[in-house]
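Lab notebook: predicted structure, single chain.

Context: the supervisor wants predicted structures on file for every construct in the current expression panel, including those that have not yet been purified. This is the next one on the list. No modifications to the sequence; it matches the entry in the shared construct table.
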Amino acid sequence: MDKLVIEGGVALKGEVKISGAKNAVLPILAATLLTDKKCVIKNVPRLNDVYTMLRILSALGMKTDFCEDTITVEPSSRRKYFAPYRLVRTMRASFCVLGPLVARLKKAEVSLPGGCIIGVRPVDLHLKGISALGVDIEIESGYVKARVKKNLKANNIYLGGEFGSSVLATANVMMAAVFAKGKTILESCACEPEVVDLAKFLKKMGAKINGEGTPCIEIEGVNELKGAEYSVIPDRIETGTFMVAAAITHGAVQIKNFIRGHLSCVIDKLEETGLHLKMYDNAALIKLKRRLKPVNITTLPYPGFPTDMQAQFMSLMAITPGVSVITEKVYPDRFMHIAELNRMGAHIQREGPHAIVQGVRQFSGAPVMASDLRASAALVLAGLVAKGKTEIFRIYHLDRGYEKLDKKLEALGARVWREKE
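Prediction complete. Output recorded below exactly as produced.
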């Protein structure tokens, strides 16, 4: 197992290209189960989660080939409906095979999912939405067993939950509904760009979908879907992470291949801190022209400030003079990185869903433990400006969501490398 070692104190300079979006490509790969034709997915990042999804597709009878940034998926002669615990347990997005399996094969057995420990994230909305389409669902021995007696039936389905809308539940139910007889109306849907990207891929396959990117999505059932070739959107969270990296190191970084509209709230908050962004068509030059100042943030579903950028922003605020308040309204327990940042000299106190951040002059390098994907990124950002050496353990979390992050940072001048634990 690797650890990441960082010697801080270097202002990042240079150019970085953003990879394809992890949270878009995983449901899109699951959607290839809906057809018996070849699909070609481009701009795919080489991440552990992507390889896990490919193993799941192989277990379900699909043939896959990953060449450079392109994945080709074709069905084999024998399609299967069983997604085992040993694969599904490693990431939540793997649960998105449930909808396509039920729609295509009319039966599925899928393990309850795993993934990062960032708070309670039940699959109730997935099961509620799919069962509303006429699917009989039982949970037995840690597996969701789903059966369709005759045909999927369109329905009006409300997908709102205790913590708002769910990206993966919206994706799962939308995929299941493409074969339902009649018009399905999904209300309180997630509006994230990754949901829109999945809908665009499904429409390219022949699905009839309207309203993606809004809380209400309408789906007119079809009899079959064809294969398609599609390029995945850039990763907005990787983009935001590199923007924070430029700010926290007082660097000058040109970020290429991203969509500004996907990051409006993050860009707005970074500009409030004093960061200057010179925007181009699909690129930006990020510079810090004046002293950082503290700002408050509250995470909300899209288009609000993304919960996946909360930890990274906390690292920035932790060395910004003054006091800032970070409120987590999506996953109220997503604060496991606070203890590790405090080990590096931060002064952060948690009060319920709020983190009170008192800026300090400098981080100090220390051995720290990554608890989840975005917490890993926050520790990397802290390490980039810490005095001395920072060792980050359990970086397998990092490899789930960032393609060659250490190599990209190294190309910008950072002193960062991997060692065996």
